[in-house]
Prior knowledge:
Order of helices and strands: HHHEEHEHHEEEHHEHEEHEEHEE
Distance between the termini: 108 Å
Number of domains: 4
Number of strands: 13
Structural class: alpha+beta
Radius of gyration: 53 Å
CATH class of the largest domain: Alpha Beta
Number of helices: 11
Oligomer: single chain
Strand order of the largest sheet: 3-2-1-6-5-4
Largest sheet: 6 strands, antiparallel
Amino acid sequence: MIRRTQVLIAxxxxxxxxxxxxxxxxxxxxxxxxxxxxxGNIAAATLVLLGATAGLIALRQVGxxxxxxCRQIDAMIGVSEPSPLQTNDQMLxxxxxxxxxxLLANARSLxxxxxxxxxxxxxxxxxxxxxxxxxxxxxxxxDAVLVTDPWDELVLANESxxxxxxxxxxxxxxxxxxxxxxxxxxVSLIREMRASRSQGGRRIVEHRxxxxxxxxxxxxxxSCLAGDRKEGGGVxxxxxxxxxxxxxxxxxxxxxxxxxxxxxxxLASIKAYVEMLxxxxxxxxxxxxEFYDVIQNEANRLGRLIDNILDISRIESGVVKINKQPLxxxxxxxxxxxxxxxxxxxxxxxxxxxxxxxxxxxxADKDMVHRAxxxxxxxxxxxxxxxxxxxxxxxxxxxxxLITIRIADTGVGIPPKDLPYVFDKFYRVEAxxxxxxxxxxxxxxxxxxxxxxxHGRVFVDSTVGQGSTFGIELSLC
Length: 477
């Protein structure tokens, strides 16, 4: 900075003296006592000489500064020091070369910086794409997935988790797990897994919770993420909804229990009467005949129970043989009425029918439809007191291409609380157990035949003390 100031002062003095030298002769001629023009010329020559001297000093200082600048530039870019025996022109050329080298070095450095920035941008995009890919995979999983960090904050979750656990996905980033989930037991499980730092291992637990007003069962799989030794990593929790599986398992257990119970009763009766016959407790042929009738009825009951169980099992597993052909529903209903009428007459129950013409047909398996209709008619006779009435009708809706069979009775009826369950396996209305014996499989079989095999619909409408109406709805050809 000081050298630059010295150069500027010397250059300014030289320019000032040179200007004065140019105007000195005229100036001194106008001054008093300076009439001699030679004095003005001598003064001008003196000023010119002084200006030249100052100019040489300035140029010399510029040269020194140029050398210094060249050395600094060469030192910055790694070039050896120039020779001290250089002219001003050579020094200017050196300065230009050094400047070009410095610009080239800066350009290379800038290009290298841009290349590194480009690499960083590419790496950042790759990381973002991988994260989006991982999020897409997690969102596509049907099971609930939760990912937490070492501070028990929710990092990532899918829609299944939000629905199953009753929270909203937040776009604001990490959210404390305890403030987001209402299930404190699940929060405790995640915390315990994170504290264990069991990397590479898993923990599987069965967790029951209440969500959406329903009790649900989840199989929770917990895994620790890799992290440092001090804080550890986060936790991945995968919740598989086992509610339906648990219900099916319970249904299987109930099914086995009901089957065992239903099989035990006819077998016990058969065994008891056979033992009485062996012991000679039947006093005469008439009593023996009564014993034989009981054994036969219980054996038939046992056979029907086994047949119903096997039929339902075949239909549910899809291995039942189905022979669908154009079938007149009217013909099937009339054949069923012919079989059930003697039983109705035995209880003095009148049977009325209002059946559509036989021209209306449906694609169905005749044996199965006949069995379903006969089952409904048999129930109507069982649960209708003596002197009651059973009405059978068919209705055709040509617009909707549907035919409906209705079987109405004036029996004891079904309580409202039992109506939703009457088609379940082994379900029996407790209030009507005294009216007739049964296995609780008849209506379940009807539902499977109509809805599973023929894609129709069954329905029931009942009033306690007034009777019930069961219906079958099938599609017309």
